[in-house]
Amino acid sequence: MKKLHQVRLTRHAPSDEARHFTPCALCVTPAPMNAKTPYDPAADGWTDFVWHEDGFPALVGPFWQKTVEGRRLHGLLVEEKHSNIHGIVHGGMISTFLDQTLGYTVWEAADRGPNVTVQLNVHFISGAKQGDFLVAEGEVMRVTRSIVFVRGRLTAGDRLIAHADGVWKRLGVS
Asked: Which residues contact 75 (CB under 8 A, 6 or more apart)?
């Protein structure tokens, strides 16, 4: 009989990057939800946000937006269609949402000009499930003539779901 190796998992303190972002007390933690009363983003001051009228973003939404204390936030109320076979939000959905949010952050920082993702690194920290309201926020780290460096995070209430960093190319600029 083969002997199995035991692995001891230890919990580490959050990284400096995870600590850098401070939750917005006014908007990141929605009112407690239960099965009878689903969270209503509109009642909490969120408005519809449409990246595109059609195409891929229209398939994976609906998305929400809110500006608090000068910070642009994007939201997503998790539906069944966003979940994987295990009942948690699919990693592709999390990556898509962060890609859209960071791309929008770049668009605002780069004179609202067209841009495309060159690289996106997503680190999955915790899971989210149907009924959770996810909030994404981006932060520009550096803007050059043709490249923008950005990072962001995704939360559900006070729980960090994922953080990401990436590089975007400004189109039409050499």
From this structure: 41, 46, 49, 63, 64, 65, 66, 133, 134, 135, 136
Residue with tokens 């979940």: 83
User: What's the average pLDDT block by block, 10 residues per block, for the chain (174 residues)?
Assistant: 41 45 47 64 92 76 92 95 94 96 95 95 97 97 97 97 98 82
Distance CA 18, CA 123 (A): 11
Amino acid at 16: D
Q: pLDDT at position 7, please?
A: 37
**Structural contact between residues 133 and 76, judged by C-beta atoms closer than 8 angstroms:** yes
Q: What CATH number does residue 124 fall under? A: 3.10.129.10
Q: What is the DSSP annotation of 17-49? A: HHHHS---TTTSSPPP--SSS---TGGGT-EEE
Contacts of 104 (CB under 8 A, 6+ apart): 51, 72, 74, 138
What is the domain extent for residue 70?
A: 43-170
Its pTM stands at 0.79
Domain presence at residue 164: yes
The whole-angstrom separation of Cα 174 and Cα 79 is 41
Q: Which two tokens stand for residue 18?
A: 């995870």
